[in-house]
């Protein structure tokens, strides 16, 4: 299993445990997001608007997956945005992607 597959699998667990939001719920609770994951192939005006709002709120953005990859990880057809609302879960996701170093083992 490569790093991208592990990250997507972890994202699926976060969604099931209600620590990640998508769709209408995400757009109404965007201020609670600690990390916003966006699809690299998102082009709609609504997608650009949500991304702009996140940038204005200084929410970290992560874009590496397509709409189909995000949708497959969450059990949907296509997903453009996923917002992680738990700070520890956001840090753990970034650690899995290699962007943030996790806790050091002695």
Please describe what this structure looks like.
- The relative contact order is 0.24.
- This protein has one domain: 60s Ribosomal Protein L30, Chain: A (2-Layer Sandwich), CATH 3.30.1330.30.
- The protein has helices spanning 3-16, 23-28, 45-56, 67-74, 87-97, and strands at residues 20-21, 35-38, 61-62, 81-84.
- Mean pLDDT is 87; it is low at 102-106.
- It has a four-stranded mixed β-sheet with strand order 1-4-2-3.
- It has five helices and four strands.
- The longest helix is centred in the first third of the chain and has 14 residues, at 3-16.
Give a short summary of the structure.
The protein is of the alpha+beta class and 106 residues long. The chain has helices at 3-16, 23-28, 45-56, 67-74, 87-97, and strands at residues 20-21, 35-38, 61-62, 81-84.
């Amino acid at each position: 299993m490569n790093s991208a597959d592990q990250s997507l699998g972890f994202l699926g667990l976060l969604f099931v445990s209600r620590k990640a939001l998508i769709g209408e719920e995400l757009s109404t609770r965007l201020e609670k997001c600690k990390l916003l994951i966006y699809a690299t192939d998102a082009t709609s005006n609504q997608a650009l608007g949500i991304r702009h709002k996140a940038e204005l709120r200084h929410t970290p953005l992560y874009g590496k997956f397509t709409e189909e990859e995000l949708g497959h990880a969450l059990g949907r057809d296509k997903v453009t945005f996923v917002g992680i609302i738990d700070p520890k879960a956001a840090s753990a996701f970034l650690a899995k992607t290699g962007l943030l170093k996790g806790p050091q083992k002695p």
